[in-house]
Amino acid sequence: MTGNELRKAFLDFFESKGHLILPSASLVPKDDPTLLWINAGMAPLKPYFDGRAVPPKRRISTAQKCIRTNDIENVGRTARHHTFFEMLGNFSFGDYFKEDAIKWAWEFVTEVLEMPEERLWVTIHPEDEEAFKIWHEQVGLSAEKILRDEENFWEIGTGTGPCGPCTEIHYDRGPEFGCGKPDCGVLCDCDRYLEVWNLVFTQYNQTEDGKYLPLPQKNIDTGMGLERVASILQGVNSNYETDLVKPVIDKVYEMTGIDYNKDEQVRTAYRVIADHIRAITFAVSDGAMPSNEGRGYVIRRILRRAVRWGRILGITEPFLYKLVPVVVNMMEEGYPELKEREEHVVRIVQTEEERFQETLDQGLHILSQMMAEQKKAGSNEITGEQAFKLYDTYGFPLDLTQDIAQEEGFTVDVDGFKAAMEEQRERARAAREEYGFGDAAAEVYKKIREEKGIPEFSGYSSLEEETE
Ligand code: ATP
Ligand code: MG
Ligand code: MG
Ligand code: MG
């Protein structure tokens, strides 16, 4: 089954169960200052969950574009994590609840996708006897295949609002994918047991004083990773080898001629590049732009990382922009809007890439000097000052420096970096106060914000970790 067919099969299945199919919302959240990116199928539907708006139907199903930056360290290193991925979901707003949600999920994976039952495992919240009973008595799973995990509880980052236990479906890809640890099992964080589907039962409202009150209207919110399921159905080793990503890797191979499986580092390079250009293409197509803060900085960061991984494959010319049409062709069946904005995306990516290429080599050179110096002094840590210099002078985002450092067995003093950054902000602020000059563009933005009543952006670090 191709990725496109799988997406369609999911939506058709839930349509046949009375769901209204809505198109994916933009990756850029609307009216939601708590979120940098849409990071789950439920995110754009939040107003229906908390009662601020009435859904067009009580059963909805979507294939939603998502970006998660909390997984960036994993990207390219695990078989299953992306910054950009698609989440397939079915949602109930005060309509059906646990029983139907579980039964339909099982029906979809075992009958429509024909996954062999013996490969499937589930997890539940330790206190969710109701879920246990449905899995055990109605679906007929043996008790040993239903694991209890404290982690199976979902709540919004703020700790108040709708929340509840969840149940997950995992697929055993076989011992050859395991990490080899003696206790490797369903709950292990390796690539063997793939978490494919998470079913959340939002049945409580957490109050400010920490009480969980039953909600009058119980909701269902599920999320299934399209690329992960595609990897299973297509019998490949990772998400990256599915038809939802592989064409990009093939294109990069055309440019470099280096075997994808040459070694771990080469494979990671191919994967990071393919992942990041998918994210960039979708994000820019949805109206985000590279910049120095917030959402724009996420794009800048991942683009620069991709450029650097290109160096690992020996690519020294701008190349990411040439991958944009590959992403568009691969994905336009599900997302026709990509085609219309293709040229715009190509131009933005090329411009941004060219700018960074100019300072990258110098920065890389300085960084290796820094590491040599530190090593001589008996340390394997890049200082905050050094990381900040790379950031400030050569445009190295912190995680790019960390990425390279890690390969050489170095760490980076993150607190020191933040302190150096703060110090510079202070200096700039003081200079502004003393001399009264400011950033002309920032002044214009400020005026627009005030006119439109848009609150000031509060800095992206506070939002950065909220996606788990
Ligand atoms: P994991 O534990 O693997 O990081 P998660 O528990 O954080 O996943 P959920 O928030 O439950 O993920 O999201 C629902 C589904 O979306 C997951 O079961 C998985 O199939 C998919 N998914 C989540 N994060 C990613 C990602 N970074 N890349 C690809 N698919 C993902
Ligand atoms: Mg998980
Ligand atoms: Mg999960
Ligand atoms: Mg995760």
TrEMBL record:
It comes from Anoxybacter fermentans. Residues 1-468 form the Alanyl-transfer RNA synthetases family profile domain. The keyword Nucleotide-binding applies. Signal peptide: none annotated. It catalyses: tRNA(Ala) + L-alanine + ATP = L-alanyl-tRNA(Ala) + AMP + diphosphate. The chain holds residues 1 to 468 of 873 of the full protein. Its main location: cytoplasm. One of its GO terms (cellular component) is cytosol. Belongs to the class-II aminoacyl-tRNA synthetase family. This is Alanine--tRNA ligase. One of its GO terms (biological process) is alanyl-tRNA aminoacylation. GO terms for molecular function: alanine-tRNA ligase activity; aminoacyl-tRNA deacylase activity; ATP binding; catalytic activity, acting on a protein; transferase activity; tRNA binding; zinc ion binding. It is found in: Cytoplasm. Binds 1 zinc ion per subunit. Its cofactor is Zn(2+). Consists of three domains; the N-terminal catalytic domain, the editing domain and the C-terminal C-Ala domain. The editing domain removes incorrectly charged amino acids, while the C-Ala domain, along with tRNA(Ala), serves as a bridge to cooperatively bring together the editing and aminoacylation centers thus stimulating deacylation of misacylated tRNAs. It comes from the Bacteria. Keywords: Aminoacyl-tRNA synthetase, ATP-binding, Coiled coil, Cytoplasm, Ligase, Metal-binding, Nucleotide-binding, Protein biosynthesis, RNA-binding, tRNA-binding, Zinc. Its EC number is 6.1.1.7. Catalyzes the attachment of alanine to tRNA(Ala) in a two-step reaction: alanine is first activated by ATP to form Ala-AMP and then transferred to the acceptor end of tRNA(Ala). Also edits incorrectly charged Ser-tRNA(Ala) and Gly-tRNA(Ala) via its editing domain.
